[in-house]
Amino acid sequence: MTTTIENPNYAYPARSRGRRGPNLEKAGWIFMRASGVVLIVLIFGHLAYNLLWTPGGIHAIDFGFVGGKLANPFWQWWDVLMLWLAILHGSNGMRTIVNDYVHKPAVRRVALGAIGVAAAVLIILGTLITFTFDPCPPNADPSLLPSFCAER
């Protein structure tokens, strides 16, 4: 009795022999490894600062703490880089899953388009919020503002 194993590249091989141009699958693979390493540094740095190096630890994290942290350009860029890499890393992972398991070209295009649109919207909104966040907006009702806004 013999068993025949199907070719695992039956539907969409990552790279055809006669194909020219950049190898986007290889670039995606390398990006996942590099962004994963950078994300580990960014996430653990974020956690260490917020939980270990801040006096009071987790109990000190409140609206004022976040407002003060986002007023510092260093932490703005740290958080934006972490946001961008996390969204791009996750989106690339979802793209890989769709390419592996969705075999109908029209459905794949729709799924990949939805992933791309979702990633773009999240990156744009997250970046906008990070750089425009103001815990003490002008002309706001003073009873709704945090206590540190009265010092301005």
Automatic annotation (TrEMBL):
Q: What is its main location?
A: membrane
- Looking at the UniProt entry, the stretches that span the membrane are 27-49, 75-98, 110-133
- Entry GO terms, CC: membrane
Q: What role does this protein play?
A: Membrane-anchoring subunit of succinate dehydrogenase (SDH).
Q: In which pathway does it act?
A: Carbohydrate metabolism; tricarboxylic acid cycle
Q: What cofactor does this one take? A: heme
Q: Which InterPro entries match?
A: SQR/QFR_C/D, Succ_DH_anchor, SuccDH_FuR_B_TM-su
What is the protein named?
Succinate dehydrogenase hydrophobic membrane anchor subunit
Which GO MF term does the entry hold, naming one? Answer: heme binding
